[in-house]
Structure formats: C-alpha cells, structure tokens
C-alpha cells in the first residue's frame, strides 16, 4: 500500500511537469496545427540557462540566499526562453504559415537539432550537476510515504501556473483572441485581431512554461544536459495526444495520467513481468499509451469538442 | 458631406494563382448608401468582398477607402478603419459563446461603456441573441448564427459594412427578419455593400446595384431600374 501511495506521489510530480510541457505543444497545435518538436529543447535551454545563471550568481553574488538565487535563475531562464520561442516562430515557422503541413513539421525537427547542437557547443556533452538550492531531503508525509521539498514546490508551482493559464485563456481579451484565432485565422483578422501577434504570444507563453518545467526537471533529478529535452518532450507530446491535442484541459489530464501510469507501472513492472523487466524500463509505458491512443482513440481522452451544427 | 466616395474600386483584379476570379471591376459607394452586388454563383462576388476586407490580396487595380489606397493594408487594420465584413457562411466562432463572439467584434475598442451600450442596442435589435448569450455559438441555428455574425460586426462600429449572402440557407421568415435588421442598420447611416444571390430581394431592398457576371460588372443602376430590366429579369429573376 505504501508503495502504491509513494508511486502516486511520484507520478503526480512527474505528471505535473509533463502537463506543463504538454500545454506548450497543445497551444501551438491548437492555433497553427503544428507539432512543435523543438518544444522539448526549449525546456533544455531553460534548464541550462538557469544552471549557468545560478552558477554565475553563486560566484558573483554569494550573499544572495538560496531561494532568491533560484528565483533569479528561473526568471532569467524564463525570459531567455520567451525570446527564444518568439525567435523560433518568427524565423522558422512564420514564413511557412501557408506551406504544406509537412514543411513546418520537418523544420521543427530541424530547429530541435539546431538547439541541441548549439547547446552542445556551449555546454559540452557532459551531464552538469544542477545546483540543489531547495532541499531534496525526503519528508515523511504519511508513514512510509516520502516527498521532498523540491517535489512539493513542483506540485504547487505547476498547479498555480495551470490555473493562471486557464484563466488567461478563458477570461481575458488575449485568451479570447487566442481561441478565436485557433478556430479561424481569417475571421479573427476580420475582428481586428493581429493574428501574427497572437501566434507569437502563444509561442512565448508556451516557452515560458517550458522554461519553468526545465528548471523543475533539473532540480528534481539534479542534472542538466544538452539532450535532456528529448525524452520529456516526447512524453509531453504523448500526454498532449492522450488528452486530445489542441485541448488545454486534455494536456493537463494527459500529463497527470501519463505521469501516474509511468510511475505506478515502473513500480510494479518487475513483479508483473516476473523479473524480466526492471523499473528502468518505465519509459515504455508512455509509448505504449501513445500507440494505443492513436489506434483506438486518436482524438484523445477529451477529444475535439465538435459543436458545429450549421 | 464630402464628395469623395467611401469606397471606390478601379479596375480591381483578384486572382487565385493563375486564375483570375475578378477581372477588373469598378464600382463606388457614397457615404450612407445601401448598394448590392448580385450575380450567379461563381461570378466573383464573394471574392470581391474578401478582397475589399483584406483576406484576399488584390492582383491589380485600385482599392480606395475614404480616398486612400488600402490594397496592401492587412485585414485587421482595415477593420480598425471602420471596414467590417460578415463573411460567407457567417464565420461564427463555434467554440466560443455567443457573448464571446459578440465581444470579439469589439476587440479593438477600448471604450468599455460604449461597448456595453452597443451590446444593449444589438440586444434590442436581435432579442433572440440575448436569450442565448452563454450558449456555445456552434449550437445555434443558422438564422441565429447569422444574427450573431451581424451583431458582432456592428460591435466594431463599422462605417462600411460588407454583407456576404446573409440569406444563405435560411427560411424565408428568418430572411425577412435579417433584412429588417439590415434596413435598420442602414437607417443609422452605416454604408452597406450587400452581396446576394436572391436578386429580387436585393434589388427591392437597395438604392443601387451592380450585376456581376464571370468576374466583370455587366450592368449597374438603381434597384428599380434593374428590377425592370428585361435582361436582369430573364437571367436572375427566373422569367
């Protein structure tokens, strides 16, 4: 029982990070119909920029406390990623707006390689240990179930950001314009919406979330690496598809479900396979889910709401 | 009143790739006029309206609004100058609520009080809309969607309203109601360019009209003149 509860806690933590990343995929897909495969690498840039900023701060401003240093590193990384997201959209995708869908998709993969290569040139091929500014000493929440302060922070920050995003999209003028543009670019422009700006805003918001997720990943696992964005990116994409790509609630639900399945599955895979697989095989769950969803329910759990009658 | 027409097309051309859909048309609308553009399916009427609104590029000729060329102005900036289009098929945001659709019409306005007042005016004009404010717009009937589309355009406070087939697919009673609304909008001084396949209705309704055929304007005159024209009667009024 403790094992199960422990895996649920771990699953929620990982899942909420997947959810944050999945939101970026799903927002861009909703508005452009594009799978932005470079999104995972924005997360990597977020983690490495935060790492670099924190290192520099620790050298040049050692009097700053741990939490302020982390917040400063995070803020710098968020800003850098927002600029990066805007730049990617502006230089790589915008000119392909009316091209066949395959062209921007391949471009996205190209951008992904480009970001990884640049990061490899700057930070090398090694794993960097990420400064542990928050305690990773496990607290015993209930007997036998442990949670670290880093994990608690991840849960709280993710939940806050998700609520903020839902409010932004559903209650503000920008959010209304985003939803209108997602449904019909031409008609949105007839309402006076500068759709290029709205699309840029979508990339900027998604990249900010990816930066936060990147810092969370590195804080949780204690490392950062030029290729660290690949797997979480792919899993978050799976989460977005699982929830129903284009749907914000779906991305959040998909992220949490994926995190839970992976974590619980990873915890029991050894028993289930009679010792044939161990928990390092837990990544297969994401891709089993992706396959099953694509075969049996390509619209995902929450699917596309179809409200067209006329 | 200035003598400059509000809208002027001079030899305007619009093409889809190599295919020219509008082959050099000239027309003008004075301030406050209600003019219709009639013609058969595929004559280029919708293409013309889309080019005026800026969601299609022009391929030649001049497009003057308030005396200034707007050929290269993006659609969202044309709206900000008072040029609104209710597109073919209504262009409702089906996943937004009725209220959100209407508020999209006022997207560029910062005068909160003015927007609220205009919303009230739209409600008095279109009482059915008010009953359904929180409903997702995709669940409305065709007539209700058309009303939302017109109400939404009005919330931008247009000086020139372009209407693309507001009667399309609607029952006669509903069409009548929609034309009543259009008439009251025109009575408030909004200049209107109406595209219609229902020539009879359009001609009775407007001060002047142009007849379009395979990308060209072939006839022009007052509504009454065209209604009496044997060619028009034969081609569009089924006689």
Written overview of the protein:
The complex is a heterodimer of chains A (310) and B (239). Chain A is mostly helical and 310 residues long. Chain A has one domain: ABC transporter involved in vitamin B12 uptake, BtuC. Chain A is 72% helix and 4% strand. Chain A has 11 helices and 4 strands; from the N terminus they run ααααβββααααβααα. Chain A has helices spanning 2-32, 39-60, 66-93, 102-123, 149-171, 173-183, 185-190, 195-221, 230-243, 248-272, 284-296; strands at residues 128-129, 139-142, 145-147, 223-224. In chain A, the strands form 2 sheets. A two-stranded antiparallel ribbon of chain A has the order 1-4. Chain A is globular, with a radius of gyration of 20 Å. The N and C termini of chain A lie far apart (53 Å). With 239 residues, chain B is an alpha/beta fold. Chain B has one domain (34-54, 75-236): P-loop containing nucleotide triphosphate hydrolases (Rossmann fold), CATH 3.40.50. Chain B is built from 10 helices and 10 strands. Chain B has helices spanning 45-53, 75-80, 98-105, 112-125, 127-131, 142-154, 172-187, 199-205, 223-228, 230-236, and strands at 7-16, 19-29, 34-39, 60-65, 68-69, 83-86, 160-164, 191-196, 208-213, 216-222. In chain B, the strands form 2 sheets. A 6-stranded mixed sheet of chain B has the order 6-7-8-3-9-10, with helices on both faces. Chain B has a 4-stranded antiparallel sheet with strand order 2-1-4-5, with helices on one face. In chain B, a hairpin with a 2-residue loop joins β1 and β2. Chain B is globular, with a radius of gyration of 17 Å. The model of chain B has no long low-confidence stretch (mean pLDDT 93). Chain A binds chain B through residues 173, 176-177, 179-180, 183-184, 186-195, 305, 307-310, and chain B through 53-55, 74-77, 79-80, 84-85, 87, 90-96, 100, 103-105, 107-108, 136-142, 145, 152, 156, 169.
């Amino acid at each position: 029982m403790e094992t199960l509860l422990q895996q649920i806690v771990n699953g929620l933590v990982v899942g909420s990070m997947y959810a944050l990343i999945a939101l970026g995929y799903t927002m861009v897909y909703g508005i452009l119909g594009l799978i932005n495969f470079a999104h995972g690498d924005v997360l990597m840039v977020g983690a490495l920029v935060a790492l670099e900023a924190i290192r520099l701060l620790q050298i040049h401003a050692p009097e700053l406390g741990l939490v302020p240093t982390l917040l400063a590193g995070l803020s710098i990384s968020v800003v850098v990623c927002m600029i990066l997201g805007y730049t990617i959209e502006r230089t790589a995708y915008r000119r392909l707006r009316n091209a066949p869908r395959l062209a921007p998709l391949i471009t996205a993969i190209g951008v992904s390689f480009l970001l990884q290569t640049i990061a490899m040139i700057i930070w090398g091929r090694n794993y960097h240990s990420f400064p542990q500014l928050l305690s990773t000493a496990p607290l015993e929440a209930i007997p036998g179930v442990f949670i670290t302060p880093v994990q608690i922070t991840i849960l709280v920050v993710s939940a806050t950001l998700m609520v903020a995003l839902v409010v932004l999209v559903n209650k503000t003028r920008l959010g209304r314009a985003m939803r209108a543009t997602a449904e019909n670019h031409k008609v949105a422009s007839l309402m006076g919406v500068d759709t290029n700006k709205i699309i840029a805003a979508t990339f900027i918001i998604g990249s900010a979330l990816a930066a936060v997720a990147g810092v969370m990943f590195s804080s949780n696992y204690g490392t950062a690496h030029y290729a660290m964005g690949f797997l979480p990116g792919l899993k978050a994409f799976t989460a977005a598809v699982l929830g129903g790509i284009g749907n914000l609630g779906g991305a959040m639900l998909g992220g949490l479900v994926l995190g839970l399945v992976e974590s619980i599955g990873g915890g029991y895979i050894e028993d289930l396979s009679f010792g044939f697989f161990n928990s390092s095989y837990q990544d297969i769950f994401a891709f089993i889910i992706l396959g099953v969803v694509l075969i049996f329910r390509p619209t995902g759990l929450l699917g596309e709401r179809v409200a067209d009658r006329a | 009143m200035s003598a400059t027409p509000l809208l002027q097309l001079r030899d305007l051309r619009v093409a889809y790739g190599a295919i020219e859909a509008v082959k050099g048309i000239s027309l003008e609308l004075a301030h406050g006029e209600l003019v219709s553009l009639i013609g058969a399916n595929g004559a280029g009427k919708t293409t013309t309206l889309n080019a005026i609104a800026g969601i299609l590029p022009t391929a030649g000729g001049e497009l003057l609004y308030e005396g200034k060329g707007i050929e290269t102005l993006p659609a969202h900036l044309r709206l900000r100058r008072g040029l609104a289009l209710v597109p073919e098929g209504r262009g409702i945001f089906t996943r937004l609520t009725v209220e959100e659709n209407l508020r999209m019409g006022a997207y560029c306005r910062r005068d909160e009080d003015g927007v609220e007042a205009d919303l009230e005016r739209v409600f008095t004009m279109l009482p059915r809309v008010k009953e359904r404010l929180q409903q997702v717009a995709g669940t409305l009937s065709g007539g209700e969607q058309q009303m939302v589309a017109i109400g939404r355009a009005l919330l931008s406070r247009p000086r020139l309203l372009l209407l693309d087939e507001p009667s399309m697919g609607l029952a006669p009673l509903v069409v009548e109601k929609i034309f009543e609304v259009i008439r009251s909008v025109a009575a408030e001084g909004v200049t209107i360019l109406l595209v219609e396949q229902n020539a009879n209705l359009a001609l009775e309704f407007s001060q002047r009209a142009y007849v379009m055929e395979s990308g060209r304007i072939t006839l022009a005159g007052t509504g009454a003149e065209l209604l009496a024209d044997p060619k028009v009667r034969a081609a569009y009024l089924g006689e």
